[in-house]
Write a structure and sequence with these properties.
The structure holds two protein chains of two kinds. Chain A is built from seven helices and two strands; from the N terminus they run H-H-H-H-H-H-E-E-H. Chain A is mostly helical. In chain B, strand 7 and strand 8 form a beta hairpin. Chain B has five helices and eight strands; from the N terminus they run ββαααββββββαα. In chain B, the strands form three sheets. Chain B has a four-stranded antiparallel β-sheet, with no helix packed on it. Chain B has a two-stranded antiparallel sheet with strand order 1-2. Chain B is α+β, with helices and mostly antiparallel strands. Classes of the chains: A mainly alpha, B alpha+beta. Chains A and B meet through loops of A and loops of B.
């Protein structure tokens, strides 16, 4: 054992403290400044198709108060018969006012933001292999789903969602290194058969 | 290294002696004791907090520890496999006349359930508006469910519809109606208590008599819905 005099112990303590302070300062000052111009672009599915055909189905199928109509859910759905988007001015109450545009948009954002990178991949490849998306993996029960199987691949609802994901919203740029958004007026419409599937699905259950 | 069974040397140090059968029995008993403790106690803190949050029974509001108790509370919180109630409900709730009045509850209302397999069952509320479906009453119930509630003019005597309500959505998986239909609350996350009329005035205009609970001797509890009587 070493015996330290009072003066030596004090010097040692001060050195340790100084060293720790230097370490903390060094580690914080080494981090680069945040770049507010840097962002990751998400390739998004078609919103008008979602609003008109897909949202009514997902609201009915998944958005009840005991399932995804709950604030704690990563995939949270708002709507007339379930959870309402909190708005003190609108005073929305479950089961009273019709679903608002803001609620539909929030539902769309929740669906896209569930797995943004996977959604981008899917949109870039025009809906190839849609079952990789958690939005479908869970209800198909490819991945554990507390609510059990909520879709099957021969369901009208499943076909409706997949058809929506296959609507082209981006195309490669001329140089082929990036994607550009297709203007709304130039986008193809949901095929008739898919529309019928969506209408059938909206009558769930 | 090779594992050997627990042996001890005998006093003479030559012949191995097996661990006594008493020791082994004690070990087994300890395991059984720990297992029974785990199964009898509620080890789920979320469930335990939910049950505790209901508070004690209120004798001045309803007959305690009976089929009439705790109207408007989430039945299946206690009536589940996690307990503490003995019976397990797959669905249960309370039907009220209006949106606000806790004391006006619907007796002899017909609660009709259609499950995902298209199986139909009907249950009748008691004098306190409570209805419950035991696991053995609807063993193969499959969610999602569609539910409607009907009250006839005078059950058993005049079976013309007085009022009927159907849920605008389905029940995804919740066994307690009151988990979503929160009594005394209508807001962005709850449509409020299950009600036959959307305003108390509408109910009062019907002049429907309220029944005391436990019921008076002249009260007739309907056991079966009209479609199940034959």
């Amino acid at each position: 054992m070493f015996a330290l005099s009072g003066r030596s112990a004090l010097l040692l303590g001060l050195s340790v403290l100084g060293g720790m302070g230097a370490l903390v300062t060094g580690s914080t000052s080494c981090a680069s400044a945040p770049d507010n111009k840097r962002f990751t672009e998400i390739l998004q599915p078609d919103y008008p198709t979602y609003r008109a055909f897909v949202d009514p189905y997902l609201q009915r199928r998944c958005g009840t108060l005991d399932c995804h109509g709950q604030p704690g859910r990563a995939y949270r759905i708002y709507g007339f018969a379930g959870f309402r988007l909190y708005n003190i001015d609108a005073g929305l109450v479950s089961g009273q006012q019709p679903t608002t545009e803001e609620e539909v948009l929030a539902n769309y954002q929740a669906a896209v933001a569930l797995e943004p990178e996977e959604m981008s991949r899917l949109i870039a490849t025009q809906g190839t292999d849609p079952n990789k998306l958690m939005l479908l993996r869970k209800p198909l029960k490819i991945e554990r789903h507390k609510g059990g199987p909520a879709m099957a691949e021969d369901d009208a609802g499943y076909k409706c969602v997949v058809a929506w994901l296959r609507v082209r919203t981006v195309r490669p740029t001329n140089d082929g290194v990036d994607f550009e958004t297709i203007p709304q007026a130039e986008r193809e419409q949901l095929p008739l058969r898919a529309r019928q599937d969506c209408e059938e699905a909206q009558n769930f259950p | 290294m090779r594992r050997t069974s627990p042996t001890h040397l005998s006093n003479d140090g030559a012949t191995p002696r097996r661990a006594s059968w008493r020791g082994r029995l004690l070990g087994v008993a300890a395991c059984v004791a720990v297992a029974s403790l785990g199964s009898s106690c509620n080890l789920d803190p979320v469930h335990r907090a939910g049950v505790n949050g209901l508070g004690p029974e209120e004798a001045d509001l309803y007959p305690v520890e009976s089929e009439y108790h705790r109207p408007g509370e989430p039945c299946a919180l206690c009536h589940s496999t996690k307990g503490p109630a003995d019976s397990v409900f797959v669905l249960g709730g309370t039907v009220f006349w209006g949106p606000d009045d806790y004391n006006a509850r619907v007796d002899n209302a017909y609660v009709r359930i259609l499950d995902a397999n298209k199986t139909k069952r009907c249950f009748v509320t008691n004098c306190n508006g409570n209805f419950y479906v035991r696991k053995e009453d609807f063993a193969k119930i499959t969610f999602p469910l569609l539910v409607s509630v009907e009250r006839t003019v005078k059950p058993l005597q005049d079976e013309n519809t007085l009022v009927i309500r159907r849920m605008s959505g389905h029940i995804g998986r919740e066994a307690s109606c009151a988990t979503c239909h929160i009594q005394g609350l209508r807001d962005f996350a709850s449509p409020g208590q299950i009600r036959m009329f959307n305003s108390e005035d509408e109910f009062k205009a019907k002049n429907v008599p309220l029944v005391a609970c436990p019921p008076p001797p002249e009260f007739v509890q309907v056991e079966k819905c009209p479609e199940d009587r034959n």
